[in-house]
Amino acid sequence: MSEIRSVVLGVGGYLPDKILTNHELAKTVDTSDEWIRERSGICQRHIAAADEFTSDLGTHAAKAAIEHAGLTIENVDLIIVATTTPDLTFPSTATIIQEKLGMQHGAAFDIQAVCSGFIYALHIADAMIKAGPYKHILVIGAETFSRILDWDDRSTCVLFGDGAGAMLLGRSETSERGIISNFIRSDGRYCDLLMVDGGPSRTQTVGHVRMVGNQVFRHAVKDIAIAMKECAAQIGIKPSDVDWFVPHQANQRILDGVARQLKLRPDQVISTVAQHANTSAASVPLAFDTAVKDGRIKPGDLVMLEAFGGGFTWGASLLRL
Ligand code: ACO
């Protein structure tokens, strides 16, 4: 019997219009363009308008992915949204996006794994397609991280931005393309190193991002490399055998450190961190969309996605476009 595959049928991305450059940021925060670029590779980030919510960003990205696939919302059975910045505590941002897309059938839910959210969502979607009965699942990463930043904390506020990315997965029993392997991990012992200091149960506030940056950095480089090796080993290859590496866009130095460890060539690595900054769960699908639409990632290419985030959570997915 042939193997069921979750094939990427379409991708989409969305960035809010407003761009905040390092130079502009340095007018209100005690920082400089030089420090931000040297330590992170970031030059600018996009910031959502006051009346623009995570669901709006996600809806734009979802529409682009559906159109790219040449399908309509009627074809979609399920929506999974990875986000840390939901519109509301409930209902889920996924159901709000479902309504904005005019979808009156199927189901929708959110998952929360911070910056690793899209990788977790992809793993769930792949398993649900393989288990059935789902034929088309829309996987969205969407964030308005600017809303949970402490703009007086220069060690975090310079690193993040807003955006959304989406992938439309379809079930196939004949294709050689699609998701090949997934790997996810978490370790709650490190909760305090990267967290938001508020929430409905503990403080009844939204809270702000707090991060012990240098410790997060060390864990990220080590754990991302392990995740990619595990994912590649499931089909007996090395990470450097892939055509493209689409990492979570947290910091150019993390991308370079992982690439050095795994002997990846710089031209295999998709980097959008300079323009997008860290958009958390949106960063991987946004970078993927960028490289598909500019023609670098082509149908048939072998692509490794990875992410690392609060929890700690981390993971990787290997797919053939
Ligand atoms: N501008 C100027 N100086 C600054 C700034 C700033 N924006 N921020 C911090 N500094 C200062 C610090 O105060 C410190 O000064 P001191 O030496 O006088 O005390 C100095 O710069 C060095 O600070 P470090 O934190 O040691 O700098 P580091 O080289 O580690 O870079 C950074 C910081 C960019 C945050 C890095 O550690 C990093 O990228 N960490 C990983 C982040 C990450 O991967 N996050 C992923 C997940 S995100 C998520 O899940 C939500």
List the helices and strands and how they pair.
Elements: E1 5-14, E2 18-21, H1 22-25, H2 33-40, E3 44-47, H3 54-69, E4 78-82, H4 93-100, E5 107-111, H5 117-131, E6 136-144, H6 154-157, E7 162-172, E8 178-186, E9 194-196, E10 209-211, H7 213-233, E11 244-247, H8 252-261, H9 273-276, H10 283-293, E12 302-309, E13 313-320
Helix pairs in contact: 3-4, 7-8
Acetyl coenzyme *A binds next to helix 2, helix 6, helix 7 and strand 12.
Structure write-up:
It is a single chain. It contains 10 helices and 13 strands. With 321 residues, it is α/β, with parallel strands linked by helices. It folds into 2 domains: 5-172, Thiolase/Chalcone synthase (Peroxisomal Thiolase, Chain A, domain 1, 3-Layer(aba) Sandwich); 178-320, Thiolase/Chalcone synthase (Peroxisomal Thiolase, Chain A, domain 1). α3 crosses α4 and α7 (213-233) crosses α8. It is globular, with a radius of gyration of 18 Å. The mean pLDDT is 97. Acetyl coenzyme *A (ACO) binds at residues 31, 35-36, 39-40, 114-115, 154-155, 158, 194, 213-214, 216-217, 220, 250-251, 254, 278, 280, 308-310. Acetyl coenzyme *A binds at residues 31, 35-36, 39-40, 114-115, 154-155, 158, 194, 213-214, 216-217, 220, 250-251, 254, 278, 280, 308-310.
